[in-house]
Amino acid sequence: EETESSESEGEEDVTEAFEMEQTCADVTVCMSAPEGVFPKGAYFEVREVNNYEEENIDKAISEISDSKEQVAASYTYDITVYDKDGNEIEPNTDYGQVSVTFSLKEAEDDTLQAKVYHIEGSGDELSAEELETTVSGDEVTVLTDGFSVYTLKFIYENVLKYTYTVETGYVSLSDILNACKI
What we know:
This protein is mostly beta strands. 15% of the residues lie in helices and 42% in strands. The longest helix is centred in the first third of the chain and has 12 residues, at 51-62.
């Protein structure tokens, strides 16, 4: 019982390893962090961004990405972390980084490359940073040291560039679709 009373006296200093997941639309977001990164009782929320926000985000991403990329799917989420009292907080990266995993069906498609961008700033003054991603099954994972907006893009990996030598005088649509893995 003494341990409980000493914890309640310095409660704001109490930390624990963090793991939590939220689902937004068809995507599940799981966040984990080692002890010390977030205070005890911390939680996070995920929301889809609105069309106005998405326009500015796309503009920021276009400044650092290849304009010729063929995007198969794109998802943009605003992730916010709160302490137990509902105050917005950032991770204490002295204790480690936060792992964020997005679970969605496109990750399983081996013809698509997953890219994750972390967006910082506000309004139309945004900057984008591409994060290193790890893909396993239906999960795309990134390590991060801050929160705001994240965009996942699934890019066709050259599968739509297809050359076919016509010997028969025609090419069947099914041959083209099969060659493109569609």
